[in-house]
Design brief:
This protein is of the alpha/beta class. The strands form 2 sheets. The chain has a 5-stranded mixed beta sheet with strand order 4-3-5-6-7. Helix 7 links the parallel strand 5 and strand 6. Helix 5 packs across helix 8. The longest helix is centred in the N-terminal third of the chain and has 18 residues.
């Protein structure tokens, strides 16, 4: 039997989700509790299944319900190009835009001297290993147009020098912009206007 404190705790947890403040969380929880059979219980069951059954893809770093994600398993995808993104949400944004049909590599962040994040805290060594062991013609650096994102892009370009062609998304992506918040048209334009790093 839930108590008002359980409901308050649920509201507090929900308010920590991106895009939800305390008022939005309260409305969402009330909506779910009132419709517990149609929304709350199926949601709780599904959240439990995802909690115990989800994996981080051992190849690209995406989230999946199997050890290797559907993108990495898809034999129809282009094998010659690899798109490097900062986070899983950026990978999902690229997929949503439908402008890339190759494979991905999720770094798990960007280099940041202020936050003491170096290449070994990211999946940069795995990226270099993937490029050296597979036959990629191009690595596309689809990193956010922030100072740390561009620093990371140039560091990776240096690591991959001579191993394959390295390109960067065009700056249709605004400075300070994050892929997950951009519309599909902007992502599309940036992908098609990418340039090779010298």
């Amino acid at each position: 039997m839930s108590s008002p404190s359980d409901i308050d705790a649920l509201i507090d947890l929900m308010s920590k989700l991106p895009g939800l403040g305390p008022r939005s969380a309260r409305r969402a929880v009330l909506h779910m509790v009132v419709r517990r059979d149609r929304i709350l219980q199926p949601l709780a069951d599904l959240m439990h299944r995802v909690s115990v059954g989800s994996y981080k893809c051992s190849i690209c770093g995406n989230i999946s319900m199997s050890p290797i994600c559907k993108i990495c398993q898809d034999e129809e995808r282009t094998t010659g190009s690899l798109c490097v993104v900062e986070n899983i949400s950026d990978l999902w944004a690229m997929e949503r835009a439908g402008v890339f049909d190759g494979h991905y590599h999720v770094l798990g962040g960007v280099l940041s001297a202020l936050d003491s994040v170096g290449p070994d805290q990211l999946r940069v060594p795995q990226l270099v290993e993937r490029v050296e062991s597979q036959d990629f013609e191009e690595v596309i650096l689809a990193l956010n147009a922030t100072v740390d994102g561009q620093t990371t892009a140039h560091y990776i370009a240096d690591q991959l020098m001579g191993k394959c062609r390295v390109s960067l998304l065009a700056h249709g992506v605004p400075i300070g912009g994050e892929l997950d918040y951009l519309d599909d048209g902007t992502i599309s334009a940036a992908m098609y206007a990418r340039k090779t790093l010298e």
